[in-house]
Amino acid sequence: MGDGEPRVPTAIAVTSADMALPPQDERTLPAAVLQDVDRRPLEHVLAELQTLVDQHGHVIVVCSEAVPASVERRLHTVRALLETDRIALFRPPLPPLGIAVLARQLRQLASCDLAPGVLASAGRLLTHYVHAGALLGSVARLDHVPVDLKAHARSWVPGSQFGVVAHPVPQLVRIGPEAALAGPEFGTCLLVAKGQLASDWVTGTLAPSWRVQGLRETALPAESAAWWGTGRLTEFCAYLPDLSVLYQLVTSVRRSACHWCGIDVIGDRCVFCSATAPLYGDGGGGAGGGGGGGAAPARERALGHRRDPALGRRRERRALTG
Description:
Blueprint: E1 11-14, E2 32-33, H1 42-56, E3 59-62, H2 69-82, E4 87-90, H3 96-109, H4 116-127, E5 131-136, H5 149-154, E6 162-167, E7 171-174, E8 189-194, H6 200-209, E9 215-219, H7 224-228, E10 233-239, H8 243-251, E11 255-257, E12 264-266, H9 295-304, H10 309-321
Parallel strand pairs: 1-2, 1-3, 3-4, 8-9
Antiparallel strand pairs: 5-6, 5-10, 6-7, 8-10, 11-12
Helix pairs in contact: 1-2, 3-4, 8-10
């Protein structure tokens, strides 16, 4: 795919072994597992990440919002001590199973000719195409999705179950004959992780209603019970499995150079240095003008590589519909 020069693949790291899903295809690269980063000696974690940077050039650490605060603090500490902008810490607003799926999609794309900044930015783009939810035995402690008083009260009724979508649009229904959740409008596979709750409704009702093109099962991530507020759950995630579709989506977006660190990115934020794209006025975008040649090319690049929204939507639609 593409005709760029061969490069050492960017490392995709996760913070526990159960977030490193089995390969989706033969091109899916293995994940680097940063196990117990908050419990091991600091110098061991420093050495581990330094080795990854030395071997791969750049490292993208994908972690859940459910990880202990000590894990996030340790990762920021290590990044600061290494004094490097080659480590990106990416915490998308997804449940744990969705995080694992997204990390695997990045592992698929890491085998392609994508620059590290584009690959890191792709995580933010692909998050929009992940539909993540769960079948829950209680929503009494659910704080990632709005729960009204009626649903909260029904949580205390024995045998109650709830279908919940946390991303991309929050939904919550009590399971019954008419219960339904709106799903993706494009072809996906469904990954199911069974906890302490039977998965019959997910596999027998939800999957057909979402017209999934394949269904696979995996172990429930250790962080899921904390994220969903209960261990009585089955977690599910609908996602784009095909590497060619993922690649089309990412390469359909215009790329630009980060004005701070210079790395190529897509979107308005660099995941490595956290700089946001500067805002420019409308004046003088043409070939132009006056003296000062150094700033002009950077400005033209920043403005010229912005995505044409209509063109981008057409390309995305083509990618999703084949």
